């Protein structure tokens, strides 16, 4: 099982290349895997920066909280482009989103080739318990199997809702522009009082809530 942390910040639009290059340099010249990090994904969504850090061990147990030995140098290099999102920010740990729900099927079979999708929305303050309940009820039914979902992780930070979905790669591709299943529509309707698009004025459909990957790294050993 992979353990993930999600960091959410503001980012200057158009600075993805610069930020990605900084991480690329330090991922090549240091060994994040020596700190238990096996992968990272950097994504953007409008003015948001999302950093998904993957580990083999739960950082709450291992105590590893930094993704690279050169953490301070990276922070300085990306500082002009990446800034705190939460209004209550006082230190770097305040940029780590809180996981409030996770789900995976009880079967332990190898899921095969999977893909990770990151969905970004806004969440009504204090609505995490309601959102978790709605997803738990849906995940207890047939919809995850129909959509090829192999795992789900929900996070929140301030008013941002981040939804990580692991999905069978072939099914994900076939459904990428098709969300017409009645059960999916029911799920969206039940979530509507609690979540909304990050930018409602430009939202046209579920595709507009997907974050865009601009950098990816995976440990080779």
Characterization of this structure:
By secondary structure, the protein is of the alpha+beta class. Helices cover 27% and strands 33% of the residues. The strands form 2 sheets. A 5-stranded antiparallel sheet has the order 4-1-3-2-10, with helices on one face.
List the helices and strands and how they pair.
Layout (H helix, E strand, L loop, with lengths): L2 E9 L4 H14 L7 E9 L2 E8 L3 H4 L8 H8 L3 E3 L13 E6 L10 E10 L4 H12 L3 H4 L2 E9 L2 E9 H7 L6 H10 L3 E3 L14 E7 L3
Helix fraction? 25-40%
Oligomeric form: single chain
Low confidence ranges: none
Mean pLDDT: 90
Largest sheet strand order: 4-1-3-2-10
Q: How widely separated are the two ends?
A: 16 Å
Specify the number of helices: 7
Using only C-alpha atoms, the radius of gyration works out to 17 Å
- How can the largest sheet be summarized? 5 strands, antiparallel
Report the principal-axis shape.
globular
Strand content: 25-35%
How would you classify the helix and strand content by structural class?
alpha+beta
Number of strands: 10
Order of helical and strand elements: EHEEHHEEEHHEEHHEE
Give keywords.
10 strands, five-stranded antiparallel β-sheet, single chain, 221 residues, alpha+beta, 27% helix, 7 helices
Short account of what is shown:
By secondary structure, this protein is an alpha+beta fold. The chain is 27% helix and 33% strand. The chain has a five-stranded antiparallel sheet, with helices on one face. A five-stranded antiparallel sheet has the order 5-7-8-6-9.
């Amino acid at each position: 099982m992979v353990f993930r942390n999600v960091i959410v910040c503001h980012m200057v639009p158009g600075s993805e290349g610069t930020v990605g290059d900084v991480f690329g340099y330090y991922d090549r010249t240091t060994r994040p895997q020596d700190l238990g990090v096996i992968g990272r994904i950097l994504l953007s969504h409008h003015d948001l920066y999302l950093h998904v850090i993957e580990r083999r061990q739960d950082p709450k147990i291992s105590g590893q909280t930094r993704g690279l030995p050169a953490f301070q140098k990276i922070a300085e290099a990306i500082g002009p482009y990446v800034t705190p999102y939460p209004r209550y920010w006082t230190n770097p740990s305040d940029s780590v989103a809180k996981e409030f729900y996770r789900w995976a099927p009880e079967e332990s079979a190898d899921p095969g080739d999977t893909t990770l999708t990151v969905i970004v929305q806004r969440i009504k303050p204090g609505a995490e318990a309601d959102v978790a309940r709605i997803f738990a009820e849906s995940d207890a039914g047939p919809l995850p199997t129909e959509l090829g979902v192999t795992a789900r992780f929900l996070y929140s930070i301030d008013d941002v809702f981040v939804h990580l979905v692991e999905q069978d790669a072939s099914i994900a591709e076939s459904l990428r522009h098709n969300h017409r299943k009645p059960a999916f529509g029911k799920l969206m309707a039940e979530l509507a009082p609690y979540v909304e698009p990050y930018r409602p004025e430009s939202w046209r459909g579920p595709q507009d809530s997907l974050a865009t990957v601009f950098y990816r790294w995976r440990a080779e050993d």
